TrEMBL record:
Keywords: Cytoplasm, Gluconeogenesis, Glycolysis, Isomerase. Catalyzes the reversible isomerization of glucose-6-phosphate to fructose-6-phosphate. This is Glucose-6-phosphate isomerase. It comes from the Bacteria. InterPro entries: G6P_Isomerase, G6P_Isomerase_C, Phosphoglucose_isomerase_CS, SIS_dom_sf, SIS_PGI_1, SIS_PGI_2. Belongs to the GPI family. The active site is at residues 358, 389, 513. NCBIfam families: PRK00179.1 (NF001211). It is found in: Cytoplasm. Signal peptide: none annotated. GO terms for molecular function: glucose-6-phosphate isomerase activity. The keyword Flavoprotein does not apply.
């Protein structure tokens, strides 16, 4: 207990039991665990919708899992989960409900925020999006000069970019190939330049995606895009045919010059990093069509229902969250790798970085006090097999423990030629080989048996014992993508609940924004910015000199 009578997570009996258990387990070996229980490879698995989750290659026993579930019970993870699904204001620092789950609720569901059922509004927006997406896809929605739209440029950043950009890449094989999609986020003018340099303004639709519509990067890029359009088309009226907005802020959208008739709304109970299944997904819906977008929402819902109803022993987000806690807090792991064996998931880990690190990168607890335990890990990774030829060396033989998720599919996308589809088994052979090597390594005796000279034996020994979760699905469909994203959303939720932090605010990004605004006049005009620290002052001076100012 603290002086104020509140118990600290790291002083609870459940936490202490885990710490003791960790000590007792010592250097538990995966080889030994599998030797003791050869059925572990099938026993330590779960099915969630279309996902097969294998957690057998983790440094855990039944007892570890039981103790972790006790920690979840003691920290009332399911209580907070139920409060979230009920629409309670669990985002305490912003006093908001957290209801991304309502974005995929069926039409007849009732989810109330302050006594009002939000589901009809969710579906009204989805219907408007579907109508608009259908018109762009069919060519009925034309540009100002009557030409059909050929390129859609989404301008947004963070959650207003990463989600749609990731999902567009993931589902490329389902997209309308006659349309081109680009995603602009960086305030570096090069981003917009590269996105529009070869486009015809008369055939380009800009989707300005911003929850707040105050984000400087997005507003700046959107303003430049509008200038580019008007330079070419020379008529203010063109804006209405070439710009739509996705936002919660009708006033700012209107002030920017976009007719609110061309705005697709969402709500403050949708966090930016949880928003791509809201109106923020419009570019994706245009790309894959409304039906497939709805399939994706169904996928999200399958995992929502699972998270809400599956018992603790069979609850995949709970399990994945708790395994992360086990390594983060009881093995001092600093990071977590997510390694998809699908080229189409090339942006998946970048998307998860925001989801996880913006949610759980907090050192202050829900009670306003500094926490005394580690919170969110560094999340990183890129698609296999590229990573194998780059940084996997460190995972295999480095000095750090890096738990990893391997995500793979039984079938390649249908569109591939027979020859390219045949490469899929090789891709997946690598997938399985890596988790095998990571788990079981290669002993010095095994190395010697290969005739390796004694002085090279230590170098060629793989200690193994690197924990991994394997997630398999038949194919990367819209539904499976929704299931994967929801799985990680709820995993992040579980960890935030255990660590007693508010996973839904992001105050940590504010200071940099404020300082950028303050520093800008120093760069452009050489203004003397009061309170600028000596280091930044010197850097600004060097910048101005290099810039020739
Ligand atoms: O600065 C962080 C952040 O607020 C993210 O949480 C959000 O996804 C991103 O900026 C973009 O915000 P908006 O959609 O309001 O432009």
């Amino acid at each position: 207990m603290n002086a104020d009578g509140r118990s600290r997570l790291d002083q609870t009996p459940e936490w202490n039991a885990l710490a003791k258990h960790r000590e007792e387990l010592g250097e538990v070996r995966l080889r030994d665990l599998f030797e003791a229980d050869p059925d572990r490879g099938t026993g330590y698995t779960l099915r969630v919708g279309d996902l097969y989750v294998d957690y057998s290659k983790h440094l855990v026993t039944d007892e570890t899992l039981r103790l972790l579930r006790e920690l979840a019970a003691a920290t009332d993870v399911f209580g907070l989960r139920d409060a979230m699904f009920r629409g309670e204001r669990i985002n305490i620092t912003e006093d908001r409900a957290v209801l991304h789950t309502a974005l995929r609720a069926p039409r007849d569901a009732v989810v109330e925020v302050d006594g009002e059922n939000v589901v009809p509004a969710v579906h009204a927006v989805l219907d408007r999006m579907a109508d608009f997406a259908g018109r762009v896809r069919s060519g009925e929605w034309t540009g100002h000069t009557g030409r059909r739209i050929r390129t859609v440029v989404n301008i947004g950043i963070g959650g207003s970019d990463l989600g749609p950009a990731m999902a567009y890449e993931a589902l490329r094989a389902c997209t309308a190939r006659e349309l081109t999609f680009r995603f602009v986020s960086n305030v570096d003018g090069a981003d917009l330049h590269e996105a529009i340099r070869d486009l015809d303004p008369a055939e380009t639709l800009f989707i300005v995606a911003s929850k707040t519509f105050t984000t400087i990067e997005t507003v700046t890029n959107a303003t430049s895009a509008r200038a580019w359009l008007l330079d070419a088309l020379g008529d203010e009226k063109a804006v209405a045919r070439h710009f739509v907005a996705l936002s919660t802020n009708a006033e700012k959208v209107s002030a920017f010059g976009i007719d609110t008739a061309n705005m697709f709304e969402f709500w403050d109970w949708v966090g930016g990093r949880y928003s791509y299944d809201s109106a923020i997904g419009l570019s994706l819906m245009i790309a894959i069509g409304p039906d497939r977008f709805r399939e994706m929402l169904n996928g999200f819902r399958i995992v929502d229902d699972h998270f809400r109803t599956a018992p603790p022993e069979a609850n995949a987000p709970l399990l994945m969250g708790l395994l992360g806690v086990w390594y983060n807090n009881f093995h001092d792991a600093q990071s977590h790798a997510v390694l998809p064996y699908s080229h189409y998931l090339s942006k998946f880990t970048a998307y998860l970085q925001q989801l996880d690190m913006e949610s759980n990168g907090k050192y202050v607890g829900r009670d306003g006090r500094e926490v005394d335990w580690q919170t969110g890990p560094v999340v990183w990774g890129t698609p296999g097999t590229n990573g194998q030829h780059a940084y996997y060396q460190l995972i295999h033989q480095g000095t750090k423990l890096i738990p990893a998720d391997f995500i793979g599919f039984a079938r390649p996308v249908e569109e591939l030629s027979d020859r390219l589809a045949a490469q899929h088994d090789l891709l997946m052979a690598n997938f399985f080989a890596q988790t095998q090597a990571l788990a079981f390594g290669k002993t010095p005796d095994e190395v010697r048996a290969e005739g390796v000279p004694e002085e090279l034996v230590p170098h060629k020994t793989f200690q193994g014992n690197h924990p991994t979760t394997t997630i398999l699905a038949t194919e990367l469909t819209p539904s499976v993508l929704g299931q994967l994203v929801a799985l990680y959303e709820h995993k992040v939720f579980v960890q935030g609940a255990v660590w007693n932090i508010d996973s839904f605010d992001q105050w940590g990004v504010e200071l940099g924004k404020v300082l950028a605004k303050r520093v800008e006049p120093a760069l452009t005009e050489g203004a003397d910015v009061p309170g600028l620290d000596p280091s930044t002052k010197a850097l600004v001076a060097a910048y101005r000199e290099l810039r020739g100012r």
